[in-house]
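Please, structure for the following, as C-alpha cells.
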Amino acid sequence: MDLAYTGPSTAGGMEASGTMKRRGQSKPIRKDLDGPTLAGGVHDVVALGAMPLEPGFRVALRVFSPQDQSVKRAEFEVTGTETVETPAGTFETYVVDLNVGGGCITGTVHLRKTAPRYYVKWATEVTTGQGPRTIRQTLSSMEMQASPDAK
C-alpha cells in the first residue's frame, strides 16, 4: 500500500490518496477528508500512547480505512491498569478498550504505563465479510537504544 495524506490546502481541504495492491490487482485510493484524520491500523493506538492516560480517560478519533475508503470513529477508554507478563518481560500497563466503526473492530489493548507507551498485548475481534476474525499480539522481544542526541 502506498498512501499519502495531503492538506490542509489553502481552501481547507485534506485528502488521502495512493494505491493499494492485493493479489496482483491495483486499486486506487482517493478520499476527501473533512477534518484531521489518522491512518487506520495501529496508528491510532500509537497516537493514544501520547495522550494523558489514566483510568477513566476517554477519547474518540477519526481514522481512515483504505480498504473501504471510509472514515471511521475510533473510541478508546482506559478501564484500568494491569501487570502483564510477556516473553519480553513484565510490564505495568493501562487497559484500554477500543471500538472502531461502531463495532467493526472491538477489543482490548494493554499500553505500557511508562514512556514509550507502546502496546505489549493486543486482542481484537474484526468483523469482515467472511465472518469475525480474532487478532492477538503479544510483545515477544524488545530492544531499546538511546538516540545519539540523548544526554
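Strands lie at 2-6, 14-22, 25-33, 38-39, 58-65, 70-86, 89-100, 105-112, 119-128, 131-138. The mean pLDDT is 87.
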